[in-house]
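can u pls check wat happens w/ FE2/S2 (inorganic) cluster
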Amino acid sequence: MGSACHQRRGYALLPGLEALIRRHGLDERLKLQGAFCLDNCQNGCSLKFKDRIFSGLNERNLTEIFEREILPLCQSL
Ligand code: FES
């Protein structure tokens, strides 16, 4: 995690991400992995999945963004 994401409490998203992965039965197929800065600091906390960067993540919108944007991409895992 880069310092900008850390300052924006990106670490606080990890338990939520882990819970979402478990809730949707993806824990055998999807692995969380730390990364350095994604060069997207100006857009808020970011994560990368399948070469796509998701930005502006926080504890309030994580579930919505995960289920709307990331979950459909998991169908082919
Ligand atoms: S620190 Fe997260 S995108 Fe730069």
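The first helix runs from residue 3 to 7.
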